[in-house]
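User: My advisor asked me to double-check a structure prediction for RING-type domain-containing protein before group meeting. I don't want to rely on an old file, so could you generate it fresh from this sequence?
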Amino acid sequence: RLAGRQRWQRCPQCKMYVEKSEGCNYIKCRCGCSFCYRCASKVSAQTHYCGMCKR
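Assistant: Sure, here is a fresh prediction for RING-type domain-containing protein from the sequence you gave:
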C-alpha cells in the first residue's frame, strides 16, 4: 500500500521497488535493468527513450 501511495515503480526484471527523486523517467535498477519509470517498460541504456510512452 505504501508503494502505491508513494507511486513507486517496480523493476520489470527483479521486481524490486524503486523511487524516482528527480530527473528524467530513465531508471537503472541495481540489478542492471534499464526501464521507464512511468510505464515500467525496458528501455535502452544508450537512448533513454521509451517506445511505449514516447518520451
